[in-house]
Amino acid sequence: MSVTTLSSPALALRQPSWLVRLFDYRPFLIVMCLAPALGLLAVFLTYPLGLGIWLAFTDTTIGRRGVYVGLENFQYLLTDPLWWGAVFYSVFYTAVATFGKFALGFWLALLLNNHFPFKSVLRAIVLLPWIVPTVLSALAFWWIYDPQFSIISYLLVDVLHWRTTNIDFLGSAWPARFSLIAANIWRGIPFVAISLLAGLQTISPSLYEAAMLDGASSWQRFRYITFPMMMPILAIVMTFSIIFTFTDFQLVYAITRGGPVNSTHLLATLAFQRGIAGGELGEGAAIAVSMIPFLVFATLFSYFGLARRKWQQGEGND
Amino acid sequence: MTETVAQPTAVANTAPDTMAWDSGLRRLMMIYLPLGCFVLILLFPFYWMAITSFKPNAELMNYKDHNPFWISSPTLAHIKHLLFETAYPRWLKTTMLVAIGSTTLSLIASTLAAYAIERLRFRGGPYVGLGIYLAYLVPPSILFIPLATVVVQFGLFDSPMALILVYPTFLVPFCTWLLIGYFKSIPYELEECALVDGATRLQILRRITLPLAVPGLISAGIFSFTLSWNEFIYALAFIQSGANKTVPVAILTELVTGDVYQWGALMAGSLLGSLPVAIFYSLFVDYYVSSLTGAVKE
């Protein structure tokens, strides 16, 4: 038995076929391993990204090759009140929703970090809004925001008697804007809470013990231990959250499609309306490209802004 | 953890508030009450979706005579309408095909890439890893317009194949990073032993590294499946004909008709469309949580 197991690999070593030898040649193997991933990304990500920037400088429409028009698309956008409205709402939406998600998500993470029965079941339930397709939960919100049969209006008017009329959630600009932000926060809380919970669990309990021995109150323990220790993970989660909130599309498209009177357009929905639905590919691409500076700025701000504070904390420790 | 619980009682004299923290009422007010509110709010839309799907139309539009939080006479009419009078089964099939196809493709591509970056150490490997990670930061909202023209160029417009090929752009970066983390946790000595025994690199990958990385592969797989099931903007932009649409797009564009919304059918469609991922999720909760937190920590 032992003889056979010893001899067969030895045999294989002596006479490897050329194919086996080729696949054991490291440079070839590295290229072969990276080819599928890098190929897919190059064709469907890098190339379209470059193409998108090029399209933004042309007047391409669906079915017609455009010509280079320089900055014309961008000059037009700068005079377009709809684009300015979309910029305003994108920034507002991102700022308010991110703040809400992180305040509530951090709170939920702190709550889940306690000991109580059925903790894992609860953690599983909490993640549900994030797992379910956004458009489908957006439809549920659309129904919850119905002008006539909204369950929230029913609660406030018929059960609690706090109001006498139904709330018109999506009928006018500001209520619609805040309704969308509420839906976005609802969807974003689980992701923030579960990621931050993972960060909370890495903080060593001995830090809290030391602080308690020094007589720190629970607020002080949060402010001087939990918060600084969470900074690195907060920076990463916030960068992701800002990028994907700013470029959000599904919620707005499903619930209001940019209405009423274009007051809830985000840059992404405006780009879709002009580029795909309206057929003006060049202009749509210009709107999409105009998101890039905001994204770069937001990423740098959230990443370096938070990372710098962590560094200051390190300085202040001694 | 027992130490942290023991400490407050030991220092109770110096810090009375730590003592109070453990008292029952305070615990109720500070932990259970807010947690209850969170769970209620996070779950309510699903409850509302489910209850609407089984309500007859008469109850849906009449809150005066029927308590809207309950169903007096549940009906399967909406689900029957959905399954037999619309193309819903077909949309489900397309979505399933797209999700499975793109998940398989991304898993193969990202396993190989992660193995090359983490195990076949080569110069520039970390930069390739960083490049793949940066690809994750490019949001689909910027890409869908030029991608639509690329898809038309390739003659894939209106075909599920377009989605299978395009979804890996956001799945591969995620899976690669997740798998790099898993490969890192597998001791390199195991591979060295195999190399000494005369195994080829591909044999090592197949016989040693992959079996040990199965939890990582499952995490990456279910995550990719969920993400491609939920994808919306590409499916909306690249698919035109009603028959080839995926569930999220079809419900929004095919079922929303006219001025009177069929809320029962819409909610039934949403419920059925959410069910596969919800079931998948309940089977693999721990993998989801570990992949979510693992990817963030990397």
From TrEMBL, chain A:
Domain of life where this protein originates: Bacteria
Entry's Gene Ontology BP terms: transmembrane transport
Flavoprotein in keyword set: no
Gene3D superfamilies membership: MetI-like (1.10.3720.10)
ABC transmembrane type-1 domain ranges (all copies): 87-304
Alphabetically ordered keywords of this record: Cell membrane, Membrane, Transmembrane, Transmembrane helix, Transport
A single Gene Ontology CC term: plasma membrane
Main location, first listed in the record: membrane
Residue intervals passing through the bilayer: 28-57, 86-112, 124-145, 185-203, 224-246, 285-306
Cellular compartments annotated: Cell membrane
Signal peptide coordinates: none
Listed InterPro entries: MetI-like, MetI-like_sf
Alphabetical list of PROSITE patterns matching this protein: ABC_TM1
Membrane topology per record: Multi-pass membrane protein
Stored CDD domains: TM_PBP2 (cd06261)
PANTHER family: BLR7065 PROTEIN, SPERMIDINE_PUTRESCINE TRANSPORT SYSTEM PERMEASE PROTEIN
Family: Belongs to the binding-protein-dependent transport system permease family.
Name of the protein in question: ABC transporter permease
Species annotation: Bradyrhizobium neotropicale
TrEMBL record, chain B:
Alphabetical list of InterPro entries matching this protein: BP-dep_ABC_trans_perm, MetI-like, MetI-like_sf
Statement: the UniProt record of this protein carries the keyword Transport: yes
CC annotations in GO: plasma membrane
Matches recorded under PROSITE patterns: ABC_TM1
Keywords: Cell membrane, Membrane, Transmembrane, Transmembrane helix, Transport
One BP annotation, GO: transmembrane transport
Pfam families in the record: BPD_transp_1 (PF00528)
UniProt topology in membrane: Multi-pass membrane protein
Keyword Transmembrane: yes
Start and end residues of each ABC transmembrane type-1 domain: 92-284
Family assignment from sequence similarity: Belongs to the binding-protein-dependent transport system permease family.
Protein name: Sugar ABC transporter permease
Organism listed in the record: Bradyrhizobium neotropicale
